[in-house]
Structure formats: structure tokens, C-alpha cells
Amino acid sequence: MTDDTPTMPDEAAVYGALRTVNDPEVGMNVVDLGLVYGVTVERGRIGVDLTMTTPACPLGSMIVDDAEQALASIAPPGTALEVHLVWTPPWGPERMSAEARKRFGWE
């Protein structure tokens, strides 16, 4: 007997998918920008807490939509995809990867 149930992606795969989501204003992915606050992978559900550099970001809904599409590309059919836009704690440049800080001259 074989189990044909599609395998849920692990946390690393979710972060990998989110690296394909760029903030078009700065041309860098949301993971390196430090905009991903958390990832949860459970049976039948992938949740992501995501923020923007500022609550006034005009592209927030587009970035959330792009994140949902990236998750859908790695999730088994029927998986609940939940991308929550959060504002606490406020984003700061210290959340950026070393590569991102170097790119923007914030080393």
C-alpha cells in the first residue's frame, strides 16, 4: 500500500518560495529585506506573517498576493494559504540580511 498524499513543504522550502517575492520599490526579495516575521507549516496549512517597511507602503496588497502565489506554487492542492500582514514589531533595517544591508550601504 502506498501513500499518494502530497507532501507538505518544509519551512526551508517556504522561505525559498518567498525569496521569489520582490518588493518592487527596492528590487529585493522579502526574505532578505527582513519582511517575513514567521512561517508555520502544518498539515493542510501554510501560514506566513509578513510586514512592510512602513504601514504607508502602497504595494502591500500586491506583495501579499505575490506571496500567496509563491506559496501556492509549492503547496499540495487544497492547502490553506494564509499570509497575514502584521505591524508588530515595527520593521527596522536590522532585520535585513547581511547581503541586503551591504547592498544598501548599511553595514
Layout: helices, strands, pairs:
Elements: H1 11-18, E1 22-23, E2 28-29, E3 36-42, E4 45-50, H2 60-72, E5 80-85, H3 98-103
Parallel strand pairs: 4-5
Antiparallel strand pairs: 1-2, 3-4
Give a concise summary.
With 107 residues, the protein is an alpha+beta fold. It has three helices and five strands; from the N terminus they run αββββαβα.
Describe the structure.
The chain is an alpha+beta fold and 107 residues long. The chain has one domain: Fe-S cluster assembly (FSCA) (GMP Synthetase, Chain A, domain 3, 2-Layer Sandwich). It is 25% helix and 21% strand. The strands form 2 sheets. Strands 3-4-5 form a 3-stranded mixed β-sheet, covered by helices on one side. It starts with 10 loop residues before the first helix and ends with a helix. The relative contact order is 0.21. The model has no long low-confidence stretch (mean pLDDT 93).
